[in-house]
Predict the 3D structure of the following.
Amino acid sequence: MTSLAVPKPRRAFQIGSPPTRAKSPLRTRSPSRRQPWKKLLYLNQPYPDNYTNESFLSQLKRNTTVVKYSYLKLLDDFSLIAQHLSNLFLVILVFIGIYYQNWNPVTPIVYSSILTIFGFMVWDANRKDDQQHHVQREVEEISSSTTTYSLKTQRSKIKSSIILLFILLILSPVLKSLTKSTASDSIWAISFCLCIANTLFHEYAMASDLANCRPIISTNISFSSAIVLASRLSTNISVFCFVLFAIQANILLPVFDVHLRQFYPKAYHRSLFVATSIVVSIMVAFILNIKILLIWVMGQVGIVFVLPSYFLFLQKYKNELQGPWDPAKPIIKTT
Amino acid sequence: MLGVLRKSRKKRSTGEFHILGFKYTNIYIVIQLATNVDTFNQQPVEGPLRGLQVIGTVNGKESSISGLNLVYNDSTDYPTIKSGENERFTFVLFQPPKYKNLEYLSIDPILLQSAEGDHGDYDPRDEKLKIINKKFNNIANPTITENTQPFNTEVLDIINQCYQIRSWYETWHRSSNNLKNQEHTGVSAKTYAKKLSRYIIFKPLTIIVACIQTIAIWLIHILNYEYGKNKREPNSRGIKITQFSAVFRQLELRLKQFNYFPIQFLCYLDRTLLYDENESMNNKNGLNKYSLALNLPIFNSNLNINNSNYINFHNSVWLIVNDILFGMSIQKLIFANYSAIAKFINETAIKKILFDDLYALISWVSFRHPAGFKLNNELGRFVGDLFLWTLRFWRLLCVDIFTISEKESSTGGWYVGGGDLGDAIKEIGGFGIKGFRVFDGKGPLTSPLFQTILSIICHIGVSFLVGFLIDYLQIISFHIYCFYYTSAKIYKRQVEILKSLFQLFCGKKYNVLRNRIDNLDNYSMAGGSGDYEVDQLLLGTLIFVVLILLLPTIFAFYLMFFLTRLLCLLLIYIGESLLVIMNFFPIFVILLKLKNSKRLQGGLTFTFITSNDENVTYLQLSNKSLTYKEIFKNFLKLFRNSKTFTLQSTIPNFVNGDPISLIQQNELKFNYLMLPRNYDQTINAWNHFTNTES
């Protein structure tokens, strides 16, 4: 994060600097009476209304806050987009597997559940560490209460996820019949729209303010997309399994990923990204065909490698003006 | 200077008269021409004639008398002024209003009916006087800006009393000529005859009327009894029978009218019943304690009361007579085609429309993708089955009860002969013994008693028949009401849940403490600080998606029942409108306007007649009768407001799922007829009469 003083602004500065000795025609006519022009609106000055002194733009600065990006860092940032896309695609692939190829819906859920439990344990252990740090820092004031609190939240976490599980199980017949009379096409259209909305609303933040990186809208949208898709499935167990898988892949996995980025070296996060990409690619190869695999891989590579360089290429068109004036901000009344 | 003059019929071109009249600062009011005014000059005038004096002469020889000196020329119809050439005169000619025929001149338009919020429209009297005077000035002397204020209430009173003053003057004149004795015996004989007739005719009549009034009051009490009222809490409201039944509402109105009729009738015979002239100084409206006890909704002040009471009374009587006549002819019509009508009601209305068609409609919505919309099959089937089951049960219960007998009873009904009343009583007795024969396949309406009741209803008036039809429609469409109410409740709840879950979906939360909606950008995994946790979020979204996908199905049911209910309400609305027309249409007022528009006082007008030279102008003062717009203004207001069922309130109610209904405003009707609020005080009016006459 270094702000550059590029040569251009300096030149701008020179242009703006007042050539004080240059005399305007007005001034030559009445040099004795004329006071030097001041940039003050409230003064009654002996100049015409449309008069512009050459010192007017003297304090103009350009591109002061421009950041110089490094390509490697941009790679990391753009890989988040690719990762989110592959998460979404994973769920869709599993749906295709269950819906068209009659997979046993229990198989993916078993794998993913094992991974989820593992991930939960890692997350929980780290959180305990974090809280102990916390306790050490804020010495004895709340030491006893926080440890019990963390235990309690851990238990309540498990309890509430079990409750959610059972509610899902109860509601799966309802979900199954929810869109039975609707045509499949319209469901695909709804699901597609929801996926687009999800990618748009998702928070792609790499490092800044990681603790608050859990956007509500994108979570809700991805979950409702999963529900809409699940309503096309034919058996209760497949509906249940698919929704559960979608929760794990689209909601818990990003949370876990954020956690990895927060507390572990970057290698962990990168290896997770590579792993998911490989899994998705293999599934594409098996479920769909090689052509789509090629498109998919090319798309991923394009997002991760080409887009950052294009982004860097675009930087030279940046033209930001700054001066002693307040920039005008449009005020849109919300009330 | 102005002369307010009565229009003389005969040309008094010859002969010499003295003018009797009243004189104000610049106004002469001519009442009477007299040849001999000697007695006038001898005695001072007392009593009602106070102020009457000789104000001038006609064709008088000596011009020394101060005041008016009028001359009739052969050439003109109108008198000219003889003296005072430099002064301007305006003759205002008027036909003396016949006060006994309820004609008079007034600046206030007569108040025939009232609608609430009327008081605001009325200007104070002074304002109106100003307007009248301005009008007068505009016509009389348009060139001169000088403003004279000739008209005030005193002048108008004298003009209105013109005939009375003349007759008083006659009697006074005769009595002053020592004709007292002969007159006196005649008068006493007359009063004696009056007293006798009062004892023979009026006493029993008053007793009968008072009895009827008592019965009416008791019936109104019964009708207004609030069932289920919590007696400990004075503000709690029970359920009145008049809230539900149009027949009883109609009955209440009729009883209240009958109860007030004697007062209304007596009031225009004798003003003092309600309006005490002595107290008019203290009390703003000049009411006495009887009218205060009655608590009339609105008061006419001053002169208008007699006339408006008279008109209202006759309007009501006329409408009631019409009502009964219509009812009798319709009863004949009904009984001539009885079997066809009964068949129509039984087969078409009840069995076909209310049950079979509704059944088909519900099953269409629930099973057969209504209008191509693909609703949720499972939910539709479930809800549809609930409604259909209820409908089948209701049909089992009701078709037997509410169908009417198609067989014409042998006695035919009331109209055949006098012996039918006995039959009716017998049947009532038999009905009581047998009780409800619902499950024999014969309801109470199938018994021949029904026809008797029907003919009785028709004889009371066609409005009662309409009321009965409204009630009947409400009873046989009760299941539609229930279905509508249930589906509206379900729909409303679902929409409410969706609204709050949509906040969650968008990551917002209603803050109870601040009464606003907070934005929550993130959820937490740890369950801290008021944000949602991820499991709460997921559960909320799950329910939201399920409910939003089920909403069209619920909405389809709601829409269907809403439309059927709206149809029923429209029919009821039409019936209620008919009732309002039959009960309140100002037919007598319209006829009065056609026959004698002088009796509908709407204000004053001046018409320019002629002016023979620059100083003298002749104007005609006459009454401006009420326009049709003014006559119908309050009626239309009542027509609109007595049953509020407007689209503005219906559409938002429909969207929110709030139930719609017709709101009856009974009070408005009573106000319109200016019936007293304390209806049980009418009996006391008789005390007033006995007190004053003894």
Residues 302 and 538 of chain B are 76 Å apart (CA to CA). Chain B touches chain A at residues 369, 374-378, 504-507, 520-527, 532-535, 537-539, 541-542, 544-546, 549-550 (CB under 8 Å). The radius of gyration of chain B is 36 Å.
